Amino acid sequence: MLNKRIIIVFIVTGLILLIPLVAMQFTGEVNWSLFDFVFAAILLLSTGLVFEHAMRKANNLAYKAAAAIAIGTAFLLIWSNLAVGITGSENNPVNLLYFGVLIIGIIGTVIARFQPRGMAQTLFVTAIAHTVAAVIALILWNPVLDASFPEPDSSWLAVIGVNVMFVVLFTGSALLFLRASTAIKK
Question: Which residue range forms the structural domain that includes residue 35?
Answer without folding.
Answer: 1-57
